[in-house]
Amino acid sequence: MTAELVRGQNHPLSQVRLEIRISSGAAVLVGATLGDENGTVHGPQWVAHPGAPVLPGVEVSLRASAEHRLAVDLAAVPDAVHRVDIFLALPAGTTGPLRFGAVPAPHTAVHGPDGTEVARYTVTGLDTEAAVVALELYRRQGTWRIRATGQGYAGGLPALLADHGLPEADTLAAVIHGTTTPGPGPTASYDHDTHRANGAARNPDDDRTAGDAPAPGGPVDYIHPRRRRTSPPPPPLAPAASQAADAQPAPPVAGDAVGWSMEERLYNQVWGMFEDLARTTAAYRSAVDFADTRMEKELDQALADPRTRLGGGSAAARETARARRDQLADQARAALDRDLAQLTAESEVVEPALPPAYAHWDNPVWHGYRVPAEPPMALRLGDLHLPESLPLRIPLLVRLPLERGLWIDSGARSTPEGSFMGSAAPRQRATEVAVTLAARLLAVHPAGEFAVRVIDPAGAGARALWPLIGAGVLAAPPAAGATGVTEVLEGLTRRVDLVQMAVRGGAAGALPDDVDTAQQLLIVNDFPDGFDDRAITRLRYLADEGPAVGVHLLLVADRADAAAYGPLLDPLWRSLMRLTPVPDEHFADPWVGHAWTYEPGLVPVGSGIVERVLGEVTTARAKLK
Question: pTM above 0.90?
Fold first, then answer.
């Protein structure tokens, strides 16, 4: 359960590997100090900051941003370190705010390695302070605890560092502020200057400054935003060697992101690519909108001038305005194409390196599949793309365990070009997508730790469900008829109730022998066929309460079929993540809000990989008996 801390409150930490997430209403720089029993920091080498982001057990962000994620491993900090303070500071020498009282209160959240939120603290009550110690991680009697500090410093970063015992606090503060200043250079569609000029949202997390942007026609720079380097910089090169190095950009590398494991680094890298594509497309669209608006304004001015309108110069004015518009649009497109080439090159090395949970069904990694010993941190639900990005597609990865149920919308009717699903009816295609998702979930969990149940009231999905039925991986035969629906829902509702009571009572291991402790996935085909009001109430209960105790829904339904229930089912639809069996433009990214086209992860025609993978799952389960 998440601890909501107030200033001065402390909370025990049951885990030593943490991710600290910080969000604020303005760009701030984040750092950490490593102190002794008294909190004294013995030199600048024990301060992690954007210019020196990595210390033993601590890694901070590379630049000022409104969003930060810090990696902390308290088991890796030196024995002499008894206190790790996380501080925030407003950048100096910028046009941004000068005091925290002028921005929304910063929010901090501490997460475990599995993504579970341990504690959160909103730093309130700040006014003239320009720097603040937000959190303190401290060692007491061999265990670690966290304290919500909220100690502000009107004197800014120099005062904060001096309070920690650093004798040359002013010098170190100047160094830290100096590392957050973007360097000069030509403008490109994805750098900070263009974001300001074109009116697109500035990406404070973006490590590609104006000076990093490649010149038109030059080599592609494969260094992406937020790709943090922990190795020391190379030694200076002679001028000739430096020019040769500039002509040979570093190739993209799979796992080029922060994380404790390759799986986590790949997950963060994919989400970094997702954000990069969203923001570079926003810059392009903003530039084109600016070009169109400018052309319309110039045309209006030309038509409003009687001398131009009556003197025969209107045609020339129109041609000039259109030429300027096309020039701006072409420049924006060239910059977008450079970024797309960069992301495409990265995708080409990342895709083959993905583990089964993240990989396409046609990825060779599935041919060497073995049942894993541990569940993954995320799962691939399909792909996303924008009109400007084709053929580049970004994997849609969601964290596990699923926090929301899934809804395969069998009412989606558009037919994808080159679809693997042939001419099957939309309802059958939706059931096929549900089966491939269920097979993926079964495949990425250890044997016996994930169970799938099916409700198919009229038996309409028997053909599409056959891979699951034939492999013998279902916990029970598909439930049919009103009686079958009632029995399955009653059993899962009882499981949710018992697990909730056991958890609240601190006796999670004292469940009755007949309760299956494996995570449960319930596939409901052709909803609401076969459901009465009582069954619908139970289904809504499972959708709301089930994910927290390991019961997940996968609904295959056409919302139009449930129109007779009116607004009764609206909360159910809102609680589920909508997926479609055909490409559909309905996903919005969290950074810009583009409408992304979702494509399901389908099995290639004629491939027997799902049957082979499910066969491995069945074999592994048999060994447990």
Answer: no
